[in-house]
Amino acid sequence: MLKLSPQKYGRADRSALGRWFWEIDGVLLLLLAILIGIGLIAVAAASPAGADRYSSSTQTLPELYFFWRQLMWIAASIPVMILVSMLPRELLTKLCLVATGVGLIALALVPVIGSTINGAQRWIDLGFTRVQPSEFMKPVFVVALAWIFTRKMSFAARAGASALLVGAVGFLLMRQPDFGSTVIFFVTWAALFALAGARMKLVIGLGVAGLIGLVLAYFFYDVATQRIDAFLFGTGDNFQTDNAMATLTNGGMFGLGPGAGEMKFDLPEPHTDYIFSVIGEEFGLVACFAIAILYLAIVARVLVKLLDEDSPLAILAASGLVLQFGLQAFINMAVNVQIAPSKGMTLPFISYGGSSMLALSVGMGLLLAFSRRNPYLNRSPYVVRWSGT
């Protein structure tokens, strides 16, 4: 008969797994598990429409093609998230710095060897799958910024090094082009810049610079011009956003029921960019509202946990990671309800995608690692400030 030791995973257990069990934020882990479960249901609902769109005269995809592939990616991604969350912060920081360098090289190679989809060259084809380097760059970029902002250097050195990094990333992304991801990288950098103790006039200056950047994008970046014109003035091609909004509201408050949606077959990317609209049609506006609340709960949970964190690196890294996560979710939902122009951005842990699922698992593993804490340590509030600002 199998007997479990009373000390197994008890508070006296000092093994790596035992420490992880007591230090991990169980509530955050549960919220992420719920989100992944909802995402799998959503992909199952959207898969028939996606399979129909990508079937051809020579190949007909099974209705649940994307569902089974997503299940495979989830099975591969969850162990990655748990493994990353078990590693010590010091090791993760070093790995993220190395990964940031590798990511810059990969972004530079995309225009040279990358594959083009829907007019954008953002993926590297590995044969068995396509990898989007920018997705993997997002989480490690945050930790690299947090490391820079907590170095014992002058204000000018830290500001210059961080600006150089985000500038390099933005330049490489706009070569693809990927304006949406560029915005997320710059907003993340600006937020950490402010959180690290920058003076208010510098933060205001960044805000003004951001507005100027959007204006320049409107005049010199054709895709931005078309999408902003369509959003603000109703000119050009509004097919995607109009269909997304119509599909989302077609189910009313409680939806038409699983598999009963029909308008989803008219969406351009029902299983990725516009999966939030599919949820609205089949499960109702109530389900959409619940998902929005779930994202908000994840962001709030992390920020509340950081109130008594005393590590500047952990504060900046965890804040940046959860901000990036929440911002991507907000942009995707905003596009689906027509309060933002079309961006081509997935809904975290809900949209179909191998690169997205793996990269998000790395990011959330980092978030879980930087929010881990020994429950027996006394902590006091700590405000990160730059010396000499």
From TrEMBL:
Q: How does it sit in the membrane?
A: Multi-pass membrane protein
Localisation: Membrane
Q: What is this protein called?
A: Probable peptidoglycan glycosyltransferase FtsW
From which domain of life does this come? Bacteria
Instruction: Return the InterPro entries for the record.
Output: FtsW/RodA (IPR001182)
**E.C. number:** 2.4.99.28
Q: According to its record, what are the GO cellular component terms?
A: cell division site; plasma membrane
Q: Which reaction does it catalyse?
A: [GlcNAc-(1->4)-Mur2Ac(oyl-L-Ala-gamma-D-Glu-L-Lys-D-Ala-D-Ala)](n)-di-trans,octa-cis-undecaprenyl diphosphate + beta-D-GlcNAc-(1->4)-Mur2Ac(oyl-L-Ala-gamma-D-Glu-L-Lys-D-Ala-D-Ala)-di-trans,octa-cis-undecaprenyl diphosphate = [GlcNAc-(1->4)-Mur2Ac(oyl-L-Ala-gamma-D-Glu-L-Lys-D-Ala-D-Ala)](n+1)-di-trans,octa-cis-undecaprenyl diphosphate + di-trans,octa-cis-undecaprenyl diphosphate + H(+)
Molecular function in Gene Ontology: lipid-linked peptidoglycan transporter activity; peptidoglycan glycosyltransferase activity
Q: Which segments cross the bilayer?
A: 20-46, 66-84, 91-113, 155-173, 179-196, 203-221, 283-304, 313-337, 349-370
- Give the first-level EC class, as a single word: transferase
Family in the record: Belongs to the SEDS family. FtsW subfamily.
> Keywords in UniProt for this one?
Cell shape, Glycosyltransferase, Membrane, Peptidoglycan synthesis, Transferase, Transmembrane, Transmembrane helix
GO biological process per UniProt: cell division; peptidoglycan biosynthetic process; regulation of cell shape
Q: Tell me which positions the record assigns to the signal sequence.
A: none
One matching Pfam family: FTSW_RODA_SPOVE
Main location group: membrane
